[in-house]
Design a protein that fits this description.
DNA-binding; 9 helices; homodimer; two-stranded antiparallel ribbon
Chain lengths: ~220, ~220
DNA sequence: GGCGATTTGTCAATGTTTTAACGAAAAATT
DNA sequence: AATTTTTCGTTAAAACATTGACAAATCGCC
């Protein structure tokens, strides 16, 4: 049913947001919505919504709109949320632990299998029911277990070291919180970068820009 | 010196990365670099780098390239990192604490002044030397202290509640980790969203897309 | 100090993304 | 059952972003 054209990254980045709004509609018992109504709710243009959804096939119906539960299911499928990608988390520091506690992996298509760190004080302890292992045993673990994805919550230098091991063991998906640029070295991996420091700098930049233009007015 | 044309968001989002690479060059004692060399290092095109930097004025010199320390200083200034925006953090749960411990606010132009939460068990305790206050005292605090920015590390519903208070007290910069859409309601605020769950879904989507196209080959 | 090599700043061309317009299909209404 | 309204899917246009090309400026060398 899906059109065989590559989906642009701009569209992919909007899909999770559609998914969220559809879920909310569904939970509120709304079973039908028009692109216009959804656009107003989301602060987007109706045209964009129709064009985005049409990348994957015509889910709507003229004169009616979109069937909410159906569209929601289609989105889940497009996003691949029914997957069970096995994942490991690297670095059980503040950030890693926050991710562990805060993110619901299962509903996003991942199954967290193991956590690794190099700090002897926390190796052997348990977080959210998952034991923290010694990072030295990473290669061994990856060879005996199929690992699809890795969540990198460690500093740049450590990230560089573990990335090599992970890549050689066939890991091709990375959720990268470090400043190490994976995609520079490995061409065939899927990388999703989350750079918190960059994000905060961007905020600072925009606030400063606004302040300057306010002053200039 | 800066050209009076609005900088596009695409450019702004690249600036922190330039900043990072420039800092590294500077730390390595490299005081001069051409757009070509920087492009290779960053995996970008030389043309893009020249065009990006030129939005702010001609920092380079023909036949020579760019002076690293000078360019670094210019970038700091463009990003506004010498600012001292006063900030408060809302929500001292896992995520909030991780942000507190993990992010260096000062070097990104912010000064964290206070932390608020609604959980009685942690109100009064101290994180990183900053006392956690009762969120009920937020309005009072904001009225007696100038607050430029807020970091929202709480669930959607709570975010909605505090956003109103913050906006009414004049806060115009938001680092938003919640799923509440601030920019929908308030037009004149600067919002930088970090949606971890969306990010993970995006990774899942891209991995699934790759898997599908691998299978089709 | 002159000359070839280097490298920027900028303009033009290309590619991508968003918005607008409209025919066609289905629903709602009379 | 016919007509009006709604609303999609699609095509065309506009806006925006990236890449390529080259003249002009500066550097480094002889």
């Amino acid at each position: 049913m899906s059109k065989n054209k590559k989906i642009s990254m701009s569209v992919v980045r909007r899909l999770p947001r559609y998914y969220r709004f559809l879920l909310e509609l569904k939970n509120n018992g709304i079973y039908r919505i028009s692109s216009q109504a959804l656009a107003e709710k989301m602060g987007a243009s109706a045209s964009q919504i129709r064009q985005d959804l049409n990348c994957f096939g015509g889910f709507g119906q003229q004169g009616y709109g979109y069937d909410v539960p159906k569209l929601f299911d289609e989105l889940s499928s497009i996003l691949g949320l029914d997957s069970r990608y096995s994942a490991v988390l690297l670095g059980a520091g503040n950030l890693g632990r926050a991710i562990l506690n805060h993110v619901d992996f299962a509903s996003r298509g991942f199954e967290l299998k193991a956590v690794f760190d190099k700090n002897p004080e926390i190796i052997g302890t348990s977080i959210n029911g998952i034991a923290v292992r010694d990072v030295d045993s990473l290669a061994e673990y990856c060879q005996s277990h199929k690992v699809d994805a890795a969540f990198l919550c460690l500093p740049k230098d450590s990230a560089e070291q573990v990335a090599d091991i992970l890549y050689q063991c066939g890991v091709r998906g990375f959720w990268n919180f470090s400043h190490y640029d994976l995609s520079m070295k490995y061409g065939d991996v899927v990388t999703e970068n989350v750079h918190l420091n960059d994000s905060l700098m961007t905020l600072c930049c925009c606030m400063t820009e606004q302040r300057r233009s306010d002053g200039a007015e």
